Amino acid sequence: MIAAALMGLALAGEPDAPILDALQAELERSIQRLSLADSPRIYDLRYKVWSVDASSEHASFGATVERESRRTWRLGVEVRVGDASYDNTGFGGWSDGFRAVALPMNPTPDSARADAWRVTDDAYKDAVEQYARKKSQAVLPADHPGDYQVLAGPPVRVTLDARPVAEPVSAEFARQLSATLVVRPDLDVADAWDSVESGILWTLDSDGTHVARRVCEHTTRLAARLTTPDGATTTSDRLVSTACDRDDQPTVRTRAAEALAAEVISLAAAKPLAEDYVGPVVFLDDAAVDLFRSFLMPQLEGTPPEIPFDSFFGELGAGLDLARLHRRVLPSGWSVEDLGYDPHVPGTDLRFDDEGVPVQPVVAVEDGIVHDLWMSRTPRAGLDGTNGHGRASLFGRSVGKAMSLLVTPPKRLSEAVLIRRALKEARQYELDHVYVIRRLEDPALARYADPEPDIPDDGPYLPGPLVIERVYADGRVEPVRGARFAAADRRVLRDVVAAGPQVDRVVLEAMDGRRYALDATEGSPTRVSAPGVIVGEMEVVPSRSDTSDAHVLPPPPP
Q1: Is 293 in the same domain as 402?
Q2: How confident is the model at residue 11 (pLDDT cuts 50, 70, 90)?
Q3: Co-location of 61 and 189 in the same domain
């Protein structure tokens, strides 16, 4: 499998070799000599070296707000003490043996080694303290499979013969995109963020792993916010994330801005939802992807959550473990596969994961029942170990995540037939209409609408509907706004009645699951391909608004 993963990658030469040699020497020195008396020694040490050229621009209402261009070097350190059966990881807290430090913009071997020495020393002390906390508080289950998987076999070595190079963002492009959004004088937000990253992410560890992966990503986020006279705030967006060497980028991004501008006009004209609705709901377009993204993906992430511990801050590390083998998550006939390496996913090359393991395809769901999970090198009872799906920030524990998700129904209907089927289902509720949802609010932009968004910290969360249509049996279509879901949870996926057209998107996922905490262009690119669906029964109710939030003074004249 490793040999297959190496095909197509250059194995000779490497840019920045003196820096890597220096870091490798410091890693080996730390393994051999870094220790404290009467304390557990390091049994596994990993360095992740991020060397990326980045350029970004933020524009608002056709004016440049901020522009930046830089080369960034960062070093992430993972220290594990004890042994694979019981170490310092998997226990709540912030000083856990995982740290990161910024290296100089143009590091020398001496500067890189000095920085690595200091941050590894700090991370080791953190790991020793965390190990002691865990020993004193953690109660492990009888079937605890261990804290880490040490891989057998020869170390993996993959190097690159050239640094990826991409053109920086255009100095005027974000400004032009934001100006396209200004279709009404009463907009609160008409912003564009344009960001390009290109470079290399190296993974070095004490097992002898040396994996270099290309980084190539161009991400554009467009956002528009409107406050209506009744005090309701509506924030919509478009996200375009592609490889940085695609030649159709300007056209794709310009079309996204034009689509968002048209959507703003439609949202402003929509009537607020006035009554509660219980019945079938149709998810199409981007909303279909976000339904599966919100409720299915967390149920297939196999890395166990951290064990909580009590501190003067309160309980830290508590988390829900939603993943269960042999549990039904979808109706009969449905399958869910992660394709593993997918050249269409921008960002960091996913031939290998963030722990240096070759990425494997995983068929997680067959006939609607979970048979496998996305795994990192943190074991789980009932599964053999990693399948190369460990993803992490530079200073966090790797967890099993999707990379290129494909949701396949047993049969797909056209959009028109799907809506007719939903109207037939609605007659059982004595309804002459059904709600069709085409876009959900993006949690990454939640703070634009509310500085303290009402989003739960733990568990899956389905954002509110943004682009929603009331479709009548006689063919009438009425856009509405101001709605939210009541009591929606992951079990709605088992109530899927039928599937429609397939939707394919690249989304940005947070490693800790908290998408609302991301900046506009932050996150790990993940491809999601899923069909539109009818959910047999959901409750859609009016969202709360306050007329005191409406603007007192009308907008300035154009």
Answers
A1: yes
A2: very low
A3: yes
Q: What is the pTM of this model?
A: 0.92
Residue 433's beta-bridge partner residues? 472
DSSP structure class, residue 427: H
* Residue 43 amino acid letter: Y
Mean pLDDT, the chain, whole residue set: 90
**What Å distances lie between residue 130 and 119, 294, 309, CA to CA?**
16, 32, 11
Task: Determine contact, residues 424/448, Cβ cutoff 8 Å.
Answer: no
228: in domain: no
User: Cα separation of 178 and 249, whole Å?
Assistant: 16
Q: What is the pLDDT of residues 52-100, one digit of tens each?
A: 999 999 999 999 999 999 999 999 999 999 999 999 999 988 789 999 9
What's the rounded Cα separation, in Å, for the pair 158 and 209?
A: 9
d(CA 194, CA 55) in angstroms, rounded, equals 8
Phi, psi torsion values for 474, nearest 5 degrees:
-85, 5
The verdict on residue 386 lying in a domain is yes
In the block, tokens 């969202």 appear at 543
Strand partners, 526: 507
My answer on whether 192 and 285 are in the same domain is no
Give SS3 for 503. strand
Nearest to 207 by CA among 131, 149, 254, 137: 149
CB contact burial 107-125 (16+ within 10 A = b; e otherwise): bebeebbebbeebbebbbb
Query: Of all helices (H) and strands (E), which one includes residue 256?
Result: helix 249-269
Nearest to 336 by CA among 369, 304, 360: 369
Is residue 233 a part of any domain in this protein?
A: no
One domain, residues 212 and 285: no
Two structure tokens written together for 445: 């932009």
Cβ burial of 200 (10 Å; 0-12, 13-18, 19+) is: buried
Structure tokens at 159: 């190097």
Q: pLDDT at position 10, please?
A: 34
Verify that 346 and 425 share a domain, yes or no: yes
Expressed as residue numbers, the domain containing 87 is: 2-217
20 with 144, same domain?
A: yes
Q: What is the CATH number of the domain that holds 152?
A: 3.30.2290
Structure tokens at 19: 């820096």
Residue 355's SS3 state is coil
Residue 239 in domain: no
pLDDT tens per residue across span 382-427? 898 899 999 998 888 999 999 999 999 999 999 999 999 999 999 9
Hey, is 388 helix, strand or coil?
A: coil
Structure tokens at 298: 């967390």
Rg (CA), the chain: 25
What is the Cα–Cα distance from 113 to 19, expressed in whole angstroms?
8
* Residue 362 near residue 481 (C-beta atoms within 8 A): no
Tracing tokens 């990693």 back to the chain, one arrives at 386
Tokens of 331: 């109706």
